[in-house]
Amino acid sequence: MAVSNSSVRKFRVAGAAVLAAGALGAATLTAAPAQAAPIAVQQIPANGVLSMGLGAWSGYAAAIRVRTANVVGQAYLSAPGGDACNRGAAGKYVRYDYTNVSSGRGGSVTVRPCPGPFSGPLEVKISPGPGQIVGTITIVSPGVWAIPGGATFAL
Length: 155
Prior knowledge:
alpha+beta, Immunoglobulin-like, five-stranded antiparallel beta sheet, four-stranded antiparallel beta sheet
């Protein structure tokens, strides 16, 4: 059984098309900018009672979010308030005191959970180094009755 030249030519054209598509896909993947990925955080949020005036009380659970940075051992930390921003969390602050269990390096950062004309960042970069990070979450604004929480994650 002989193979015709047209069959071989079709096979070569199809192979070249597959290789070109693969090269284009690889170029697209390598050219894409690095995206910060969320890091899993095990936590018990800080819980507080917010006041929006006499008789207007609201519960608030301050949880943190962590996402990767471009450098190993660094991450971005935030504490988005979500719906609580409409219930008295605007103008409040959340502090995370942390320690790297492996290296002993630690620190403290404060973020605000809600956008607006308030001072302070919505997100901060932390540099505890690679390893397991443990810490406490605290609502630090005046006029808030709160119980601290805790959080741990790995970098």
